[in-house]
Write a structure and sequence with these properties.
By secondary structure, the chain is of the alpha+beta class. Helix content is 17%, strand content 28%. It has one helix and four strands, in the order ββββα.
Length: 65
């Protein structure tokens, strides 16, 4: 579960080529997503329920590696 009020990076980030990663921010009713390499740039914001459904749909899928 995401901690409200803090930017969090995926536990899958840090390794691999390019070190591509996103961070998420729990705003209780909405989740914001940003590029960890460019945190001052734009964010995407989704309703919390839609983001939770998106994450659930990704679970169990093979990684892109």
């Amino acid at each position: 579960m995401l901690t409200p009020g803090t930017w969090q990076k995926s536990s899958f980030s840090g390794g691999g080529q390019g070190d591509a990663c996103v961070e998420v921010f729990n705003r209780r009713t909405h989740i914001s997503v940003r590029d960890s390499k460019a945190p001052a740039r734009a964010t995407l914001t989704f309703p919390a329920r839609a983001f939770a459904a998106f994450v659930e749909a990704l679970k169990g899928r093979p990684s892109a590696d």
